[in-house]
Amino acid sequence: MSNQQKIKEFNKIFLGIDHSLDSFDRFIFFRLWLLDQEIEKLDQLKLIDLVERLKVGREKLKKTLVVLSKKGLVYLQEDDRIIINNLFHSPLRTKCQLFEFDRFLISNIDRCRYHHKQKSIENYWNLDYKAWLVLFSLVLYSDRHGIVVKLGMHELNIFTGMDRYSIQRTLKKLFEFGIVRSKINGTLDNQYLNFTSAIYFLNLSHPLWGENIKYQNFKFTYFPMELDLLEQGLSAIKYITDNFNGDIEKPIFETLFKDPKTSNYHFKNFDNFDFLLDFYPQHILERVSILKAKEWKEIDLKSTNNKKNNSHRLKFVFKYIAQFLSMRNNGIEQLYIGHIQQNMMMFKNYFRVDKFELSENIKNILPEIRQTLEVGQFQIYAFISQFLMCNEILSIVQRTHIHSQISIIPIPMLDDGLNGYIFPSKDLKENELYKISFIEDDRLYKRIEEKLEMTIENQKKYGLLHPTCEELVF
Q1: Read out DSSP for 283-317?
Q2: 119 phi and psi, to 5 degrees?
Q3: 8 Å CB contact between 128 and 114
Q4: Cβ 199 vs Cβ 184: under 8 Å
Q5: Cβ atoms within 10 Å of 274's Cβ, excluding its own
Q6: How far is residue 74's CA from residue 68's CA, in Å, rounded to a whole number?
Q7: Residue 65: C-alpha distances to residues 32, 61, 85, 112, 157 (Å)
Q8: CA distance 236 to 416
Q9: Are 129 and 27 in contact (CB under 8 A)?
Q10: Tens of pLDDT along 73-105?
């Protein structure tokens, strides 16, 4: 088995192993499986040899081997030898976008400590085996920028064998070490998104990663808009439902507009949104009752205690999906229906698809009607994504138009007014951090870009490190 095949097989086993195993037992099995792949003669090693290689107590190892044997993961021989059950296969498949980081964690699994009183502890990382399990789960679910979406407590419990409190304590440690940069908390409910889990941002330039370090270009800004951009975008939904209900009031879309002559910015309102009504053809709406219309009119994301987290998560996802869309001009344009249909699975990966109540006389053409309704719904989401991303990015990159797909990735932020982005940069020798300010002068705004030092304090100030992080350690 090649090294790449071994890593892919390990990933499948990691995700599909018996969920009832506790964290220590599964960690030992992973060590045994890798050892079996390495020496290919694991069945010739006695228990005392395994104790020496794994650096774990004899009695504790014996207890774990009994558990693994009962699960059918290993076979115990009478002479204290074991055989790995290589017929075990996981039905799960995953394509890790951070393959080098994935390989690094697997290759260095023996550097994790079991407990703080371990012998020769100075030879081990500060990370224990529980931190390794959680971090490995985050890496498997991460995109190539370090953004982790749809990995919640439920999934972490399945992949690590740890309870909620152990996972939270371990995440706290990863934040303190600076290995995980930031997080948007999960929520109990959200009327737009189809997942409630937290969103994480990994530190790909942490010293832990050694020669695999990936440097990034970060830019942050506070926009001077008085009206929240997300609420402006969501008002498009209210406009459509108001028209459907006969109560028409056009939304206000306030954006920063760059004057090409002076290079200064000023506010400009867009007020022609009739094309929004085309998202749901009138001949369809006349025969369909939109069950979610009442909720859609409520721009406050439901009156729950997690309203703030809901808002942060929703704003992030709307901006995040922009990388999958073809962006044009100022974002106030209807995407072609064909383009929406091509990206249906992408939308369904993040957003809820509302159920619609259809009249009896059109149930015979249900598939066509449903597709029309879904496309209309995702056109609205694509519009909001364009509006948010283009109005922010156009102000940052100093371009008057965007003609292609955006490769600028939003950063999960907790600050209400602060907006952060990862900009594509090749061959960086170090991380770069920029602050962009808009200084008002007689109703005009001058854009000022300042490069900042990538200090711990600056990273904490702009949300790139958790407030509890004092030093990048591992």
Answers
A1: HHHTTEEETTHHHHT-TTS-SSTTHHHHHHHHHHH
A2: -65, 145
A3: yes
A4: yes
A5: 9
A6: 6
A7: 10, 6, 12, 20, 22
A8: 21
A9: yes
A10: 999 988 888 988 876 566 666 689 999 999 999
Q: Residue 27's closest CA among 96, 127, 110?
A: 110
**DSSP conformation letters of 45-99:** --HHHHHHHHT--HHHHHHHHHHHHHTTSEEE-TTS-EEE-TT---S-----S-H
- The single residue listed with the structure tokens 């220590």 is 24
Six token digits for residue 280: 């749901």
User: What is the DSSP pairing of strand 147-148 with strand 217-222?
Assistant: unpaired
- Taking alpha carbons only, the member of 411, 413, 415, 393 closest to residue 402 is 393
Among 17-21, 43-47, 265-269, 410-414, the range scoring the smallest mean pLDDT is 265-269
Nearest 10 degrees: Cα torsion 294, 299, 302, 304? -160
Is the pLDDT assigned to residue 409 strictly greater than 70? yes
CA-derived radius of gyration, the chain: 26
- Indicate whether 64 pLDDT > 50: yes
- Backbone φ and ψ of 270, nearest 5°: -100, 135
Calculate the average pLDDT of the chain. 82
Distance CA 304, CA 189 (A): 8
pTM surpassing 0.85? yes
Whether residue 1 has pLDDT greater than 90? no
Tokens 């959200």 sit on residue: 190
- On whether the CB atoms of residues 341 and 260 are closer than 8 A, the answer is no
